[in-house]
Structures are given as structure tokens and as C-alpha cells.
Amino acid sequence: MSQTREPAREQPPTTLRRQKYLHYSIVLNILARLPVKSLLRFRCVCKSWDSLITSPYFISTHLYINNVDRGDYIVNMPRYENPSSPPYSNRPVITLYRDHDGFDKIFEFEIPSRFPPYQANLVGSCNGLLCLEFRVREERWQAASTTAVIYLWNPSIRKLKRLPDIEFDYFIRLGFAYHSENNDYKVVKISYSRRMHEVEVYTSKSDSWRTLEGLDVPLGTKIEFGDNIFLPIPFFGGALHWLVDIIQSEEKHRTEMILSFDVNNETFEELAVPDHCFDGAGNEFDMKCISLFRGKLALIRFETVGEQSFACVWAIKEYGNHKSWNKPLVVREQYDGLYGLTKRGFILLEDESHNGQLEMPKKRKLVLIDPEARCEECFDFQDLSFVATFMKSLALLDEANVITY
């Protein structure tokens, strides 16, 4: 995995340079190592400290110093199945659990009342920001339209930012990433149908969408994007990655590959996947997705043989070299859905059972598997859960058009 790059730096505020008693570098060095909660309180000390703490220079410095590898979290989101009910009347919370040590609860944040009363999808997480998408369907006159409402949310400092809404009548795929060279955050949207592919990029600093050149698709060729099950699009090596199928319309030939988007130079590249994309009968695998596993880009394929299902996890040793794929893990138990893989090598799956009685409703539970120790732990979560990175940060503190709740 690529090493953390130092973000683009700006000059410190001039007010900090006028400190009479301590050199500004000493003040900055001390404050940059303090927790977020303390820094928010210290904004009240004086104008110079407030100017410093809210400056892009300090926010990027604090992020760089504190951005250590702390593993992944299980993000437990409330499930909303009745959009007509009063939104968030009980002030639900989002809960973060560590991926080890008995699933201990680490953070708990109230969900802002501004969020739509619909189930949230996690687009991605980066530097303490969660990018959430809500699909809102509305009936207008004789036609129905679907709107993607997207928020950037920093629960540590109670700040959120609503992106310009997206209305669409065909398929879209979203990815969330950090642009290290500009110290900015990007949301990438790929809209596609049988006849067109359009790419748009949102940047947090500009607070707007702009259109890039469409994907270079030869005539008579179609690209199908996988839904990646419940997993966010992985951000790895400075690029977002989608699993796609290239279909030649005339020959009906299907080629599986990974499409990467470099968020710094905004270019696409194609990455080959492991061989044997189909099973012995010539049929496609039941499900497939990509994620990060033990710090590397991974491809997961699900297959059913007889009455047994299992998942094969392929990880790439050398990024960009398709011959370096290896299969480090096979999970042979029967499960109903994959919700994430962690840096430590744990797998979060869903298991639904009828408790031996088919007429009884299914009981939903999540299973956290440690494949090396060959053990598992079950948790009765009725809410949707994801695997995501998280840290407390000051991201969004200096942004325009940010909402404080």
C-alpha cells in the first residue's frame, strides 16, 4: 500500500507569526498534536489561535501528524424502511465499533436532523469524513424522478456539507477520495446507460460538479458496472476502483476488468483481474466485488457448488501487475451478504436464518470472521453496517457552505 503523502501546505496565518512570547513554530507544533475536542475549545483563547486552528495550513498539518494507521471500524447505520414516518423523531445515532477486541463500541454520534428520512449508503470514508448518499424518489406530474442527495459529514466537529443534488433516470456509480496534491476532497460520479457513459467530478473547495470527457468506449461495446454489493468503492494508491464487464455487442464476448480513476490527474486506467473469470460450466460467478483486504486491493468472487456457497478472496501483491494476484483466502460457510473486509484480515458477513421454521420471519445477524484463527463472532444488528476507516479530524472546519448542527 502506498505510503501516506504529506498534503499540500500553505503559509501559516500572519497573526500566528506575531506571537511575542513563543515562536509560531513552537505553538503550531504543540497545538497540532492535541485532540480535536481540545482544539475546538482553544479557539476561544484568542483571535490568533482561532485564526490558526481554522486555517487550511493547520488543518492539513494536524491531519498529517495524527493520520496514523489505526485499523478499520464497523459503522452501524440506522435502518429506515418507512420514509413517510416523521424523520428522526428519536434522534438515532451512528455507532462505530473496532474490528477486534470483542467489537467494542468506540464512537457514537447523533445523526443530523437535516439528513433525509431514507436509508443512507456509505459512498466512502477518508480523514474523518463520511460521504453518505440518500436516494430520494419523487413523483412529478406523470413521471417519476430519482435524486441522489449526498452529504460530506464530519461527526467529530458536528459539521456537514450538502453537495448539489443529482437527478438521474439511469444508472450511476459514486466514489469518494482525497486529492492529496490539492488537499481537497472529490466525489466521482459515473453515469451510464447502453448508449452513453458520462463522468462528473465534485471538488469540495469549488463546491460544484464539472464534467470530464466520457469514457472511451469503442462503437458496439458496452460497459457494465458491478454494484459492489454493500461495499464502498475502494480508494487505493491515489485511485478509485470499479469492477466492470466489457461486452462486445456483436460477439457477446464478456471481459472482466478493474477500471481505476486517478484522482490527482483525473485519468482512467484498466487493470487485469485474475484468470478463470468463469467456473467450469462456463457460467459467471454468483456475485463479485472489490475491496481492500489486509492493506491491498482485493477481488472477491462468490460461487455455489451444489448446495454449498463459498467466497474466494484474491489479493494483488504488486499493484499494476496482473500476474501478481494470489488467492489467500477461501470462506466455505453459507452466508447471505458481504459487508466488508478489514485491514486486519477480518470479514464482516450477514447470515439470515429461519430458526428451523420456514413460516417464521428471518432473523438477521452479522458475523465477524477471523479466517486465520478460524473463529467467528455473531452480533444481532438489525441496522445496516459497513466497514470504514475513521479518525477524529478538523476536516470541513475551514470549508465554505458548511452547516453546523
UniProtKB/TrEMBL annotation:
F-box domain boundaries: 22-62
Coiled-coil residue spans: none
InterPro entries xrefs: F-box-assoc_dom_typ1, F-box-assoc_interact_dom, F-box-like_dom_sf, F-box_dom, SCF_F-box_component
PANTHER family assigned to the protein according to its UniProt record, in alphabetical order: BNACNNG10540D PROTEIN, F-BOX PROTEIN CPR30-LIKE
Annotated protein name in UniProt: F-box domain-containing protein
Organism of provenance: Quercus rubra
